[in-house]
Amino acid sequence: MVFEINTSIYEKLPRSFYLREDVVQIAMDLLGKVLVTQVNGVITAGKIVETEAYCGRGDKACHANGKRTPRTEVMYGEGGHAYVYLCYGIHHLFNVVTNKEGQADAVLVRALEPIEGIDVMTERRKNTHAKLASGPGTLSQAMGIHVKMTGLDLLSDQIWIGTNGKDESINILSDARIGVEYAEEDALKPWRFIIAENKFVSKGVKEKSPANHTGL
What we know:
The chain is of the alpha+beta class and about 220 residues long. It is about 10% helix and about 25% strand. Strands 1, 2, 3, 4, 5, 6, 7 and 8 form an eight-stranded antiparallel sheet that branches. Strand 3 (about 80-85) and strand 4 (about 90-100) form a beta hairpin. The longest helix has 8 residues, at about 120-125. The radius of gyration is 16 Å and the shape is globular. The protein starts with 14 loop residues before the first helix and ends in a 21-residue tail after the last strand. The model has no long low-confidence stretch (mean pLDDT about 90).
């Protein structure tokens, strides 16, 4: 089954978007953008509504903190590539590598609002629930994202992030990242971001406070 949609309306973000030094700002800027995959000729797309930022230097929650391994090698490459890893041996989690080569920053995409190929997402998830892509593991399943995609260029025609052609004003809220209790004081960094009042986020924030970021 092939879905014919006009992918040109989701114009790919330029490399320069990903090469910026502030991963927290990029995590915020990704909200409202559209993640698109084309797997075996099938296109699916969803608006990004939840993200988490991870810094490769001095952030104990980051996979690349203090170590360089075969798994994290892609994080040390040039921004604008996919980092997909397996969590608990089951879930394939999609991250966006950012910053210049050698810095190992990344943004975890945690939730999408489905836009295109919803029937395909439903079939992949074997689920008729409205929240087809709410949570990083379910998101990847719905979008056909797999660890074999790690390292793919986000300017490719297989997986990319684009604009939706609309000038939307969004209200961003922040909270601590999820599942990083091992990171000690860094677990408290308010580096998870959501679009306020969006029903597709994986989990709401504890305090209804707007994101306030002044740079790393």
